[in-house]
Specification:
With about 90 residues, this protein is mainly α. The protein is built from 4 helices and no strands. It has one domain. It is elongated, with a radius of gyration of 18 Å.
Length: about 90
Amino acid sequence: MLSPKQLSQLAQYVENQSCTAEGGRLMGQDFCTFIKKEFDIDYHRDHVYKILKKLEYSWITSRSKHPKQSQSVQDVFKKLPDGNDP
């Protein structure tokens, strides 16, 4: 069983990975690998999802930022007329 400190570290891992610019999605096996590497504890992937639920995360996550994503370009694009304006 993970301690409160370990749960906090896992939550920080989720937050850090969701903001990475490398793209991709976090999957159950990613969490199993992290827990094994950091805490030397083996968990089945199904149990990892229960831990994430306890931390109030959903097993369905948003995709992390694309490596070539540019917030400034997106902001400019949002200001362009969409062609439906009179």
